[in-house]
Amino acid sequence: MGEKPVAPFGLRAASPFCGPRACRILSRSTGVAVALFRDQVVVLTLYPYRDRDRVVHTLARDHGRLGLLARGARSPRGVLAPRLMVGNWLEVTYHRGPHASLGTLREVSLVADHQGLQGDLDAFACLEVMVEVADHLGHEGSSEPALFDALCAGLAALEGGAGRRGLVVFLVAALAASGLWGAGDRCEHCGRPWAGEIRELAGEGHALWCEPCGGERGRPFPLGLLLALVRIASPEGERVVLTREQEVRAIQWLTGRIEAQSRRRLKSAAFLNGL
Ligand SMILES: [Zn+2]
Known about the structure:
This protein is α+β, with helices and mostly antiparallel strands. It folds into two domains: 23-113, CATH 2.40.50.140; 117-273, de novo design (two linked rop proteins) (Up-down Bundle). Helices cover 32% and strands 24% of the residues. It has seven helices and nine strands, in the order ββββββαααββαβααα. The protein has helices at residues 121-137, 145-159, 163-177, 211-214, 223-232, 244-262, 267-273, and strands spanning 23-26, 33-49, 53-60, 64-70, 89-96, 103-112, 198-201, 207-210, 219-221. The protein has a five-stranded mixed β-barrel with strand order 2-3-4-6-5. Strands 8-7-9 form a three-stranded antiparallel β-sheet. The protein is elongated and about 70 Å long. The two termini are 42 Å apart. The model is unreliable at 1-19 (pLDDT under 50). The structure holds zinc ion (ZN). Residues 187, 189-190, 192, 209-210, 212-213 line the site of zinc ion.
């Protein structure tokens, strides 16, 4: 079957890359000037394209949500298939024409994969939630270093056995990176510090309101859990311990907030909640 792997790789040992801003090169196939970029990405989703190729949707540190065409990536004997797996952290070089919606991968090296999660359904479901959240909260063409770093840290925590607690930490960090996490110490409607019951109002983006603001609407949110989440978001968050029940409740609230803000369902969260 001597099928040759991947055309666009190994073109030269060191690519003429000039940082997040592009430098111009001439495309070998068309002779047209294209921009060459290097970035770090995490693979979010993969789609088959034509006979041998894949379209890879990623979150890129310097370029936000980024679609890349991976030529030859469906070839079973190629070097690309094992690198292009959901959740993998890669360093990539790609080129992109002035009007192209996708970049074209030229070089890819693996920074971290998640082979250690094989066979751990719960951890893998957490990984799926992380990448879907990154897809919902990331923006195309804008630098997303805080969200990218939160995603890489979250995936590494899963690899280290953090389980759903790792997902909770990631969700708080992802909301914070997107400006959707408040201080957590006061009503998100009237701004007064908590006194009495806290209500979670789904219709207001899963915001937390005090009882006078929320009235009978929404459902009660436990103050102890909220304080734990506030501490998790702080530098000493490592020491905060959550019960399984608290993890489940926190994931429901945080993913509900992300769904409300992005106006898209998180299919992976529904799956995780069903486990
Ligand atoms: Zn209030």
